[in-house]
Amino acid sequence: MKDNQFFTYKEIMQQPEMWLKVYELVLQQRVRIESFISQYTDRNYQIIYTGAGTSAYIGNILEIVLSESNFRGARSVSTTDLITNHHAYINENQPVLLISFARSGNSPESAGAIKIVNTYCKHTAHIYITCNKEGELAKNADKENTLLLLLPPETNDLGLAMTSSFSSMLLTALLVANIQHVDTQLPYIQSLTLKAQKILSTYAPIIREIMKREFSRVVFLGSGELKGIAEESRLKLQELTDGKIVCQFDSFLGFRHGPKAIINKETVLVYLFSGDEHIRRYETDLVKQINTNNKVTAQIIVSETPVKTTGIKSDLEVIFGEGDSPSIYDCIPYVIVAQLMGFYKSLEIGLNPDTPSVSGNISRIVEGVILYDNL
Q1: What pTM was computed for the model?
Q2: Where is the SIS domain (predicted)?
């Protein structure tokens, strides 16, 4: 089969187009969104980002990248943690704004987390960011304290692995946090699409060739919000290879404290370099150490700007910046590298990227979850 006959490939490639659609969608609803948000950000509501798996990682990224916005102090707590340990995360005497991310909106944990917050908190409000108008989340959004943001139907990825749904929901949340200035954001979104297109057109063939090499481990490293991107990257490659490639993620500094033991000659390392020069000094120090002490299958650098540091070696530098000023959206294109790696490695080892789980261990919508009432 040709690449474009797979849903997963088309969903990876459509992301720049989806981001423009997402921007227009948010722009058209600016007044409604701004009115809703202002009710809760100005009234001491605890803001919690929630989701499961890839949808949870969106919150981990937002927690860092939006730390200087109206959402400062917001916390990322997965639906899976809210269900089992809600008392550790919510104060029933403090009002909560729960921002839920869901591709299908049919995950049992999404419904369970919402029920728990509504049950144990005196005052609650909800924002549902989802890709499926037929999902349970969208169908149950007709309440005064709930804002539904339904993304373009194409983002409801048909492949098992979340690709355009992840990046589109992340972008939506970033635009919502910046809603007061959303009418000035088009140049940044256009730049974002150009960066993604550069990765997809220039680097995809090289990534495909590297994925033909034999390896059994991949490590993704990132700092700050890019650690969240590394987390999603880890899952993407591991899902698309049905666990045959064992993947790990960490921060550059954290990796030295034990996790670095994973490196062997069958390892691919992917470095998601920060655009902050101060942070980058710590990152390049680790890479130089690895270059000196370890033999690996391949090293891939992903960065907006060239890494001009002596002692840094790599098999591929994915440089995708357009020379514009930094923005809160800059973290998004990094994930495309892992999406492409996962797609091509899945094909290389004889799997179908749309349904890679031969074992049946994972599925597009999680199965087997039973929600219990509290004792």
Answers
A1: 0.95
A2: 33-187, 206-356
